[in-house]
Design goal:
The protein has three helices and seven strands. With 178 residues, the protein is an alpha/beta fold. It has a seven-stranded mixed β-sheet with strand order 1-2-4-3-5-6-7.
């Protein structure tokens, strides 16, 4: 997307509706999705920006606040993923949320000037489980991740490589294993 002009406003969330190719068992519920992007103030079409993808906790129904304030968000492009139903689908190895991430990132990189070597993922609660899953499945794409209040299942997905990470958790939280 470098060199491609964008009409999207800076510092404002923009909704993107997408169709995701998922397995037949998921088509009815997971093929039609939406995600949101937010360009930094002073976005330049010829400057490659890092991308930070966010996954929030269960129950989000629209774009929500991220851990970043407007002044902090001046040097990168944000992508906000939205779950279907109540939480992200992070259990099965063929999770439709892997394909959803791929489509959202591909469209973001096609439409905005991004630095493909600086893609980061962050999440809270259900978004944290998503962050772990994608860190395993997309280690070749995600440079680093940060998460809070989430875990990774004992029978987690096969990891494709290593990713830098910062992980925070409450040691008394029995629902999200460290």
């Amino acid at each position: 997307g470098c060199g491609k002009p964008s009409e999207d406003p800076a510092n404002a969330w923009v909704t993107h509706n997408v169709t995701v190719n998922v397995g037949a068992a998921y088509t009815a519920m997971f093929a039609s999705r939406k995600y949101f992007t937010r360009l930094p103030a002073g976005y330049q079409e010829d400057k490659a920006y890092p991308v930070i993808v966010w996954g929030q906790g269960c129950g989000a129904s629209n774009v929500e606040s991220t851990p970043v304030t407007n002044s902090d968000a001046s040097n990168y492009i944000q992508v906000f993923m939205l779950q279907v139903g109540n939480c992200f689908n992070t259990g099965p190895a063929d999770s439709p949320d892997i394909d959803y991430f791929d489509v959202a990132l591909e469209e973001t990189q096609a439409n905005y000037c991004t630095d493909k070597g600086r893609v980061f993922m962050g999440g809270f609660s259900s978004g944290s489980w998503l962050t772990h899953m994608l860190g395993c499945h997309r280690a070749n794409v995600i440079r680093g991740l940060g998460r809070a209040s989430g875990g990774i299942g004992a029978k987690h997905h096969e990891c494709t490589g290593t990713v830098a990470a910062i992980l925070t958790a409450d040691t008394t939280d029995t629902n999200n294993p460290i």
